[in-house]
Amino acid sequence: MPQPSLRRQIYIRSVAAVFSAYFRIYHRLKIEGVENIPLQGPLFVLINHISFLEPFALGLGLMKQPLLPSVDIFTVAKKELYHFKPIGKFLDSLGFFPIDREKMDMTAMRTMLNVLKQNKMIAMAPEGSRSPTGQLQAFQPVVAKIAISRHIPILPAAAFGVEKAMPVGTKIPKPYPITLRFGPPFELSEFYNVELTDELADKASWVMRAHIAELLPEWMRQVPPPSRRVGARKV
After folding, report:
1. Which CATH code is given to the segment(s) 6-227?
2. Whether the predicted pLDDT of 108 surpasses 60
3. Within 13 Å of residue 60, how many CA atoms lie on the same side as its CB?
4. Which of 66, 91, 165, 228 has the fewest CB atoms lying closer than 10 Å?
């Protein structure tokens, strides 16, 4: 693959320097398990989701290896973030691309497959929505289906402290310490070369969840009670 232009590299590293200073000073960001990060894809990088903070912390963590956002790493973001064009352009410049969470977004699926075909990385939160409690929610099985059908390795990552730095409903982050932790890569190889039913895809999604749960504090590993899950009906 061609190397990015010098101007492009300077832009990415300049943006990263700003975020790095913010996370280091305001959140005392601690990054663990960098040695587990592969140097190239294809690869899914999966992380828990509580706020807008962890995707940027994840990007900084991946840059501890010689990896660049929008060059080696691309990230899924909800389409609502693109309603304000300046924010959309900024996200595009850092390798984000939109996904419609309300339906099967074939455009986003094609983008993901194209990125993976180029031996690059896709970072995303398989919960689909922010956890209202900080506890790790159930995973959507679509990521498992792609990982199994394409034999894509998975790098698990976990962010904690985020639930106090910026819980759901908070607009301004609080100066609370954040830890980002990477685990060893794994594959869903036990599901390869078999008929992938919806039941098996769901089972595989729980295997993915278990790998991320292992990296989190004990209380965050539990599935939130039904009344606190995203999309739960109120009574």
Report:
1. 3.40.1130.10
2. yes
3. 26
4. 66
